[in-house]
Write the structure tokens for this entry.
Amino acid sequence: MAENAQVQAGAQPTPEANPQSRWTRTGVALAFGIVLALLSLLAWGLKKAQAGPVDSGLAPDFSLTGFDGRTVTLSELRGQVVIINFWASWCPPCREEAAYLEQTWRKYKDRGVVFIGVDYVDTNKEALAYIQEFDITYINGPDLGTRISQDYNIKGVPETYYVDKKGQLRGVQIGPLKAPELDQKIEELLAEPDPAN
Amino acid sequence: MKRKLLFILAFILAASLLTVMIVNAQDGQPRIPTDDEVNAVAKKLYCPVCPNTPLDVCETQACKDWRAQIRDQLAAGWSEQQIMDYFVQQYGERVLGEPQRSGFTSMVWVLPLIAVLLGIVIVWQVLRSWRLKRAEQISQEISTPNSSDRISKELRALVEKELKEID
Amino acid sequence: MISDIGLVALSIAFLFSVYGTIVSAYGGLRNRPAWVESSRNASLLVFPLLSISVLVVVYNLYVLDLSQAYVADVASRAMSTFLRVTALWGGQQGSILFWAWIMSGFVAIVLLRKWERDRELMPYVIAVSMLTTTFFVGVVVFITNPFARLWHVPGAADLTTAVFQPANAMPYIPEEGQGLNPLLRHFGMIGHPPTTYIGFTGFVIPFAFAMAALIAGKSQEDEWIRTTRRWTLVAWIFLTIGLILGGRWAYDVLGWGGFWGWDPVENAMFMPWLTGTAFLHSVMMTEKRGMLKRWNMVLIILTYALTVFGTFITRTGVISSVHAFSKSALGPAFFVFIGLTFIGSLSLLFYRWDAMKTEHHLESFFSREAAFVLQNMLFLAIAFAVFWGTVFPLLSELFTGTKITVGPPYFQKVTGPLFFALLLLMGIAPLLAWRKQAAHSLGRAMLLPFAASLGITAIWGYSHRMHPASIFGLWLVSFVLMSILTEFWKGVRARMQGRGENLLVALSKLIGRNHRRYGGYVIHLGVVMIALGVIGDAYLKQETQGALTAGQSLTVAGYSLRFEGLKSYPGTDGREVIEADTTLFKNGQAVRRMQPRRDFFIVQEQPVTVPAVYATAGTDIYILLLAWQDDGRSATFKIYINSLINWVWAGGVIMMLGTLIAAWPPRDGQKETTYQLRPQVFGPQPSTGD
């Protein structure tokens, strides 16, 4: 008993000839490695959770196939002002702005402005009923696999993104738009010079 | 005789033809799927919007729309797999309650399996090395005969002490 | 005013925590007892100070002082006084204060005990536990302060929340508070957060002792385990109760007939419970045989780390969950804290790794030691599977950009077999002796439970033959039950025959002579009951849904529900109630009138479905009102037959009873038999059964 205590209290095992210590070193490295990997993952997750919607830089590109069959690709719309509106038929605030959006579209559609409606996790039947109810004529399509919504990091619906003639994101409106907010923003972006081709 | 036989044969043929027609007609008629049938499919899916909520219990308007959609699809004769594939295509993989077993996602299934196997191996190794140490210790003790008297006295003392405590 | 007192007390508590942390560490490292005494006094004062703050918050809630932002957030005029007071832990600010308060209370209890035996550990126990307290109190003071007010800053669209008046701002006092989320207005709100927090924070004490042992270089001794044994048990049982209460609460208010959803926040509580249970068992090995010192360190570090990880996920919303608190600036602060905890404890562990080496001797694979090792491995495998499934959606999004859901089907499939293996082990292990169990005597010991369980399963299986998957589970449960009862019976019979005591006396004396062992068996009994409930939930549940007009019935499994009519009325607490009147029939006989309803909370614009439940001995008939036509002519109902679910709640009660027995201190002068702290190594031993 006494011998045991002495061995434990005093000496450290010699490291060289000890195969155990090699395992221990690998174990230590592995343990720290895993902990650091986990911390990095959590840091990334935290940053992502606290980040708001994307509101600057190049607008993420996407292709949308509308309910009526037409397709639109964002990158092909350089030179025009693009308004991207995320909506859903089950979203009451979206209904508040639907009429205003359609009205503004009709006003600006021949002046180099494109409206794109991205339908976020919706059913075809309800979406078509919504479009019919508000007589929407600009292109609307489902966001397949929620890829577009994820790229824009939307936090909910409705959200409206403003893209300028150069394809840069110039801001986002979270929540329904009220007149004359959209008109003002479009006039602002239209007034900018056209990009040299 | 022959005419009777012919008549019977014709009757059987007509009856079976009629039965087949009736059965086919039943299949062709649209039947409204019951709530339970819709829930059986919805149970395997998750609400695409609300976090971690199965589609059959979610109470939001969106979920009601989706369940109505499943009902329409079932009525149109879609199979469960077709409905689930449609949901994945429309709303992404997060709509599945059970992660797929292909691609990167297969890692979620594979790693615990590896962990358990590794665990069994480690337990086996650890126990074995303890057992070997014990065998070593026994052989060491056997090779030093002097200690046996002292040990048995100590052992006896301890056993007596414990017996007293047990009352 | 009153709130200022609360704020001042809070701030002083923070200063004392900082003082306690730094001064105790210094006093310990430089061997200055006077400094350590001083830090002890400062640390003792933190609890009374935080108590003042807590009382002030409760007072503010009680009188509904709406100038306080926190009160305006979680309370409202419509809420009853009782509910208003429990709203102390209803929001982020209050709940962290509550957490810090409980933690400081535990530290105070620990510091008030006699320290002769562990004198060298005290400075570091104070340092580690006060470091944790400093963090939480600091978060309350600087980030989520319950004494902040609402201000209207000119030019800003929204109101600002701040403790001190921003420039040019005017105070804003709302007319009415938001009130607690309606789902939180349930008795579960009284029980679940406090018990959970006590469970979580309780583990700080064993962790602090373990760290102190590592720092002080006393990790090769087991004193810290013996000192903290009861702490661990108490923390563990509170965590267990917290888990069960949470399940009960979800069952009552969420309206999907289940009690466990494998949601990330639920898993966050479950993981430390798993490693904590492994820890509880492995310290028995250390006490009995002096084995597994390093492993115990690893387990307590893991348990505490998972506690901190759990609270991180819950409060920051890193992993999306239905339980998430509203997000705030807590994220980065908590991240730094868990980084520090993980890396710090890991470093200390490896610093003393070699010093903790012990000689391990295993007589035989058929021994309780081997069973404990296997059990620990299983618990850890389950904890890993739960962890992996919880964290994987984050990984998947990082590497592939796809969001996925890892839901109950995954967890059930992966952990199910492991839980079955654990249950089986729980049935066999009491029959195994320490050191060495001869195979034939194990076989003999197992014979009675095994045969009895087969008999029970045959009867049971016949009545449940439409669910063949459940039969294995039912056999397992009955086997473990029989095994535990056999242990009791052996002991009782020995006393009855040996001393002529009658059954009840023998039983109480048996348990009295060995609290820990038989208390442990009672806890296992509770676990078996919970397992039964879980098997019922997994395999034997039935449900049906349908729309009914008045007079129509919905049928499932011999029960049928007839819709009589619909009515609506205003309820308490600011809600509007739609109630359905129905009659439940069993096999044609009317059993009871049931009133499932849907309450709509007007201010929060939130509906809550309130089920009507008919509880029989094991089974609940759980009825929900899902939808209705406004003219009241038809309504949609869902019926769940939750077989065996009440065994879960009963099992929880038995587990509490068992823990009480196990933790009960022995009478003075009576030493607990069979457990010694240090192993006595002699040499070849005759095999001593237990």
